[in-house]
Design brief:
heterodimer; A: about 230 residues; alpha/beta; six-stranded mixed sheet; 6 helices; globular; B: alpha+beta; six-stranded mixed β-barrel; two-stranded antiparallel ribbon; 13 helices; 12 strands; about 50% helix
Chain lengths: ~230, ~375
C-alpha cells in the first residue's frame, strides 16, 4: 500500500546549528504513515515526540530531511502554502483541547469547517453530524467550560474531523483524562482509522494505547529507535 | 460567519473589558464630535450674516479682517457701485458695535446690523415674534432669543436703551448668534445711524452688490476693484471664508478645538489599544490554534480587526448618542453644528483609531508560532 505520509531522514535543530547551545531535537527520523492505521509515537519526555508530530503537521519546518504528504514534497513549499496543506490533509487534537472558550460546542466545530472551506449553508448540518459521530449531539449549545474533560476532547476530535482530513494528529489526547474517559477517546481514534481509513498519529505515554490496534513507534533522544509492527 | 462570531464573542467574553473599551471610544469620539461640532457652529456664526444675505460682492474698508471688525466709510459710494456695468443692485449695510443699558443699570455690548428696510441685504431671518415691518418709523430693534440671558428677558413691545437712545422691541429672532458673543441687534439702516451718530452719520460699513443674472461675476468684480481702489472688494464666498479663517487660525481658537479633538483621538487610541491587546493576549493560544488548524495569518488578523471594527461601530453609535445628549442639555447660547459630513469623517476617524489600536495586537499575533499550541 502506498503511504499517505512519507518522512525521510528528518532532522530538527533548535537554535543556531553552528552554536554550541544548539539542541538536536530530532535526527534521521524516517517514517511512513498509511491510511487506516493508528501510529502511536511513544518515548520519554524531551525525546522529540512533539517535534516529530509538529513537523508531520506542517507547523514546524525540519532543519533537514524530506516530508511528503500525498506525494507532495511539503518541505520544499514556502511558508504561505502550508496553511492550505494543513486545511486539506490534517486534523489536530491537542492535549489541552484548545477549544475557543467564547464559542459553543457547535460553533467551535463550525469555525474549523469554515476554515476548511465548507460553504456557510452547510456549516450547521456538518457540525451537528460530526458532533453526533463523537456522541455529543446533546451538547451542541454548551460552552466548553461546562463540559467534562472527555467531552472537551470529543469536541476537539469533531473539530479535527472538520473538512474530512485524511490525517489526524493527536498530541497526548488522554493526558488530562481519567482512565475510563481516556480509553473511550482512544477507541474513537481507533475507529476513525479502521472505519474511515484515516491515518491517526497519537503521541502518548498512556499504556491504555495497548488496548487498541496500533503500530508503536519508539523515539528516544531524537532518534526513532524501533518501528514495531503490531 | 463563524469568524465574525468568534470576533464578536471574544469581544463580549469579558464584559468589564468591553465596557471599558466602549466607554473609552464613546468619550473619545464624543469629545471629537462635540468639539468639532462646536467649532463648526461657532465659525458658522462668524459668517452667518454674510451667508444669509443675498448679494454676490462685498465692498468694505481696506484691510478688513473679519465681518465684525470693519471701519465705516462714506455711504455715498453706493452710487459708484450701482453705476458699474452688470450690477443689478447695490445696498449699504451697517455693522457696528454698541452697548445696551440693562434693566439693572449695567451695560452689555451688542452688535448692530443696520439694513435697508426696502432692500435685500442684512435682513433678519428666523423671526419668531413680531416682524421686520415694525422697524419702520420709530427706532426699533429685533433681538435674538439667545441674547436674553445676557440682555434680560424681553418681549415684543418692550423698550430698552441702546447707547443713549430709547428703542422698542419690534420682534424676536431665533438662533442668530455672532462669533464675538455680542448679541446681534437688527434695526433699520437709518436707526443704526441715529443710535451711533458719532461713527455712522452719513456712513456705512459695507456696500453689498448683486450681479445681474447671466452677467460674469468676475468682470463685475474686476470693475468694482478698479473703481474702489482704496477699499477691499471680495466675493461673498471669499469674505465669508476670510472671516471664518480669521477667527479659526489668527485667534488660536481653531487650534484649541482641534487640539482637544486630537487629545480625544489619542486618549481613545491608547485605551482601545490597551483593551484590544489584553483581549488578544487572553486568547493568544486560541489564535495559535487557529493557525495550527489551517488559518492563514490574514484570517487571524481579520478576527482582531473585526473586533476593532465592531468596537468602532458600537462606540461611534454611543458617541453619537452622547453628543445628542450634550446638544439637548447645552445652554442655548452654545451652537453645535451637526453636518452629515461631520459624522462621516468622525466615523472614519473612529475606524482609523480602532484599526491603529489593533495593530499592536496584530503584530503580536503575527509572531505566534503555532507549534506553541502543542505545549500542554
Amino acid at each position: 500500500m502506498k503511504p499517505l505520509v512519507k518522512a525521510i531522514d528528518l532532522q530538527k535543530i533548535y537554535g543556531d546549528p553552528e552554536s554550541s547551545s544548539r539542541v538536536l531535537a530530532l535526527q534521521d527520523a524516517t517514517l511512513d504513515l498509511f491510511p487506516g492505521e493508528v501510529v502511536a509515537i511513544m518515548g520519554p519526555s524531551g525525546s522529540g515526540k512533539t517535534t516529530l508530530v509538529s513537523i508531520l503537521g506542517c507547523i514546524l519546518r525540519p532543519t533537514a530531511g524530506q516530508l511528503f504528504i500525498d506525494d507532495r514534497l511539503v518541505t520544499a513549499m514556502n511558508e504561505a502554502s502550508l496553511p492550505e496543506i494543513r486545511r486539506k490533509y490534517i486534523g489536530f487534537v491537542f492535549q489541552s483541547y484548545n477549544l475557543f472558550r467564547s464559542l459553543t460546542v457547535q460553533e467551535n466545530v463550525e469555525l474549523a469547517l469554515e476554515l476548511k472551506g465548507v460553504p456557510n449553508h452547510q456549516l450547521s448540518s456538518q457540525a451537528s453530524g460530526l458532533l453526533d459521530l463523537v456522541g455529543l449531539s446533546h451538547r451542541l449549545n454548551f460552552q466548553p467550560a461546562d463540559l467534562s474533560g472527555g467531552e472537551k476532547q470529543r469536541v476537539a476530535i469533531a473539530r479535527a474531523l472538520g473538512g474530512d482530513p485524511p490525517i489526524l494528529l493527536a498530541d497526548e489526547p488522554t493526558a488530562n483524562l481519567d482512565s475510563r474517559t481516556g480509553g473511550e477517546i482512544l477507541r474513537i481514534l481507533e475507529s476513525l482509522a479502521l472505519e474511515q481509513k484515516k491515518s491517526v498519529v497519537i503521541v502518548t505515554h498512556d499504556p491504555r494505547v495497548e488496548k487498541i490496534k496500533h503500530r508503536p513507534v519508539l523515539i528516544e533522544d531524537g532518534r526513532i529507535q524501533e518501528v514495531l509492527y503490531a | 460567519m463563524p469568524m465574525w462570531r468568534l470576533a464578536l464573542k471574544n469581544l463580549m467574553y469579558d464584559r468589564t473589558r468591553l465596557f471599558i473599551t466602549l466607554t473609552g471610544i464613546t468619550f473619545s469620539v464624543g469629545l471629537i464630535l462635540v468639539q468639532v461640532g462646536m467649532f463648526f457652529g461657532m465659525t458658522a456664526n462668524s459668517s452667518t450674516v454674510i451667508e444669509n444675505s443675498p448679494g454676490d460682492i462685498w465692498i468694505m474698508a481696506r484691510n478688513s479682517q473679519n465681518f465684525d471688525m470693519v471701519n465705516p466709510f462714506s455711504e455715498a459710494l453706493v452710487s459708484a457701485a450701482k453705476s458699474v456695468k452688470g450690477v443689478e443692485w447695490a445696498e449699504n449695510l451697517i455693522q457696528q458695535f454698541a452697548y445696551m443699558r440693562l434693566e439693572n443699570g449695567g451695560t452689555e455690548q451688542i452688535e448692530i446690523i443696520g439694513f435697508d428696510l426696502n432692500g435685500h441685504v442684512g435682513r433678519p431671518w428666523n423671526v419668531i415674534a413680531g416682524n421686520t415691518d415694525e422697524l419702520r418709523g420709530a427706532d426699533a430693534i429685533l433681538v435674538d432669543e439667545t441674547a436674553m440671558d445676557r440682555l434680560g428677558k424681553m418681549q415684543v413691545g418692550d423698550s430698552r436703551e441702546l447707547v443713549r437712545k430709547k428703542v422698542r422691541i419690534a420682534g424676536i429672532t431665533s438662533g442668530i448668534m455672532s462669533f464675538t458673543t455680542a448679541p446681534y441687534i437688527f434695526t433699520s439702516y437709518e436707526s443704526a445711524q441715529r443710535i451711533v451718530p458719532e461713527q455712522l452719520a452719513g456712513k456705512t460699513t459695507y456696500i453689498v452688490v448683486k450681479v445681474l443674472q447671466d452677467y460674469p461675476l468676475k468682470s463685475v468684480l474686476n470693475d468694482l476693484k478698479k473703481r474702489f481702489r482704496n477699499y477691499d472688494v471680495r466675493t461673498k464666498q471669499e469674505w465669508a471664508l476670510k472671516t471664518r479663517n480669521y477667527w479659526t487660525w489668527q485667534t488660536g481658537i481653531g487650534a484649541g478645538f482641534f487640539g482637544n479633538a486630537l487629545m480625544g483621538f489619542i486618549v481613545g487610541l491608547v485605551i482601545v489599544s490597551q483593551t484590544i491587546y489584553s483581549a488578544t493576549m487572553e486568547h493568544i493560544r486560541e489564535y495559535g490554534t487557529l493557525k495550527a488548524i489551517g488559518a492563514k495569518n490574514t484570517d487571524v488578523y481579520s478576527v482582531i480587526l473585526k473586533q476593532a471594527g465592531i468596537s468602532a461601530g458600537a462606540g461611534f453609535l454611543l458617541a453619537t448618542l452622547f453628543q445628542r445628549l450634550v446638544i439637548l442639555i447645552k445652554p442655548v447660547t452654545v451652537q453645535i453644528a451637526t453636518p452629515f459630513s461631520l459624522y462621516v469623517v468622525t466615523f472614519l476617524l473612529t475606524l482609523i483609531m480602532c484599526g491603529l489600536a489593533a495593530l499592536v495586537s496584530v503584530r503580536r499575533v503575527a509572531s505566534i508560532d503555532p507549534v506553541e499550541v502543542f505545549k500542554g
